[in-house]
Amino acid sequence: MTKVSALHDARTLRAAVLVSLTLWALPLLGATAGTDGASSSGPAEALYLQLGRVGLDPTRVYRVRGAAIDRAAIHMTLEDGTIAFTQDVMGRITGAFFEGDGEILLAPRGEVERRSMSLFTGMAILEERFSTAYLRFNDETAAELRPDLRATDDGAEFATKWGDTARNLAQLDAMRMLVTFSRLLPVGKNSQGLDGIDRTSLAGSSDRILHARLLGTKRGIFDVYFDSMAGEQVQAGQARAAESGSTYYDVWTAFSSEQPLNRAEPSVPKTEGVEKGHGDWVAVHRYVIATAVEPPKKIHADARLQLEVSQDGARMLVFELSRFLQIERVQMDGQAVEFIHNPAMEGTQLSRRGNDLVAVVLPEPTRAGQKIELQFVYGGEVLAEAGGGLLYVGARGTWYPNRGMSMADFDLQFHYPPGWTLVATGKPEPVGMNSSSSANDPGEQAMRWVSERPIPLAGFNLGKYKVATAKAGDVIVETYATSGVERDFPSAPIQIMRPTPGDVVPKHARVQVIAPVSPSPARNALPLAERAARAIEYYAERFGPYPYSRLALTQMPGHESQGWPGLVFLSSYAFLNEGERTDLRLDPSRTAFVEQIPAHETAHQWWGDLIGWSTYRDQWLSEGLANYCALMMLQEKNPAGFREIMEKYRRDLVEQNKDGALPKDAGPVTLGVRLLSSHFPEGYEAITYGRGTWLIHMLRTMLQDAWLQDARMKSRKISGADEPFVRALRKVRERYQGKAISTRELIAVFAEDLPPALRYEGKDSLDWFMDGWINGTDLPKLELKAVKFTAKGTSTIVSGTIVQKDALADLVTSVPVYAVIGGKRPVFLGRVFADGEETTFHLTAPVDGRKIVLDPNGTILTSPK
Question: 0.85 exceeded by the pTM?
Answer without folding.
Answer: yes
